[in-house]
Amino acid sequence: MSLISNPEFSLINGQAHHSKTQVDVVNPATGEHLAQVSEADNQAADKALQAAAETFEKLASTTAHARSQVLRKWYELVIEHRQVLAEIVTKEQGKPLKEALAEADYAAGFIEWYSEEAKRAYGQVIPSHSQSHELTTIRQGVGVVLGITPWNFPLAMITRKVAPAYAAGCSFILKPSEKTPLAAIALAKLAIQAGMEVGAFQVLVTNDSKGLVAHLTESPQVRKLTFTGSTQVGSALLKQCADTVKKTSMELGGNAPFIVFDSADVEQAVSGLMAAKFRNAGQTCVAANRVFVAKGIAAELLNTLTQQVSTLTLGNGLEQGVDIGPLISLEAKQKAQQLLEDALAKGASIAYQGDKQSGQFMAPVVITDVNSTMRLFHEEIFAPIVSIIDFESEDEVVRMANSVPEGLAAYFYSNDGNQIRRVSHALEYGMVGINEGIISNPVAPFGGVKFSGLGREGAQEGLLEYQEIKYLCQKFS
Predict the structure, then answer these.
(1) Phi/psi at 147 (nearest 5 deg)?
(2) Is 185:135 a contact under the CB 8 Å cutoff?
(3) Which parts of the sequence belong to the Aldehyde dehydrogenase domain (predicted)?
């Protein structure tokens, strides 16, 4: 089966959508033109919506067991094609192939998990208030779902939305990032090959994301919106969904603190920091954004960190031995450089900086003497820049960690059991890694608090996001 051709097409009701305009897909590492994808307009979106609505009605008559089998087959196909999928991701997104392979496995994990959870969407029997009544609840799919996914994890961000939606009996219209549409189309082709109804997973690619999404959110037929992206865009989408009172789940921006207390194992902490910071060149919503280090171990940690950072290799992700690929765009690199320049102008010092890189590549940078007046203290860096802030007390660092409006992920390293309990409860974040730099897992709930979003993805909670609870009250004569 050919997962990708040139040109490619948006997929509507299982058919290639032809249009006069195309979205160009370019390799960020080389500038190579990869493909042209037919662009979907509002008329195409209406066709997709009609197909999704009709399919949702059909899905209501399917069993959870049948949907489970389809998901299981989809999982098996993703695993079978993991090498091809990973190469697609590396070419259109830029991350090293070893990371893309890990993402393919991670993406498959969500499909596998929800193939099993589909059969566990239990209702309940409620103890009745009288002898003549039976009170029960059942769970039903919410309806047609519109999903908007980003470019940084073009496989996993899709499967962790589509798999639970289908498990719940919902149909799904996907608007992937225009920078990484090829992975989305490949996943949809595999889902249809696995037996998923053609109207249950459709892909609309466009350069006019704002206009197309606004058109779809106006429709009362779309009953849920799921979005992963910036807080600014998520807030605007919530406003668009208000008039039709849609169910929403939002995985928004992060500003993750990474705290190293003086009782921590420094080598272990640096290893965790390397994973939490440099995966995908720092372009993850859970990347360590502010690194807080106890003053007593700051020099030791900085020395160990700079030694490890100096070993990182930049390059085309398809080449052997590459650790860091390009940033997604020149604009992304320019923003990161502006954040760095702002920090240096306000007193930060460079502890390590790799050789200057051309194009969309950015060498790793480690800076010290960071403070809250700097933009990168308050803004997501989304680049391989490590910003280090010294602290003296537990209360001080918890206060600094919680001082931003975002609350997605946090990390801390400590070998003090009482401190672990205090800090894990005090941090205002939806996810906390304790002596661990990689926390994402299909079986655990992923999501944040405060400005970082609404709802959870993964785990049992991820299935509930696509279901409505119906209460049944039956009186017997």
Answers:
(1) -115, 140
(2) no
(3) 19-471
Contact status, residue 226 vs residue 161, Cβ threshold 8 Å: yes
How large is the angle between the packed helices 156-168 and 181-193, nearest 10 degrees? 40
Residue with tokens 């060149």: 281
Give CA–CA dist 410/41, Å, rounded. Answer: 40
Closest Cα to residue 335, out of 310, 369, 360?
360
Burial code (b: 16+ CB inside 10 Å, e: under 16) for 402-438 equals bebebbbbbbbbbeeeeebeebeeebbbbbbbeeebe
Kindly report, residue by residue over 8-66, the tens digit of the pLDDT: 889 999 999 999 999 999 999 999 999 999 999 999 999 999 999 999 999 999 999 99
Residues identified as active-site: 251
E strand residue ranges, 144-287? 144-148, 171-175, 201-203, 222-228, 247-251, 256-260
Amino acid at 273: L
Domains of the chain plus CATH, in order, are 10-252+452-474 (3.40.605.10), 256-441 (3.40.309.10)
Q: In the structure encoding, which two tokens stand for residue 246, read together?
A: 């849609």
pTM of the model: 0.97
Q: Is the peptide bond before 7 cis (omega within 30 degrees of 0)?
A: yes
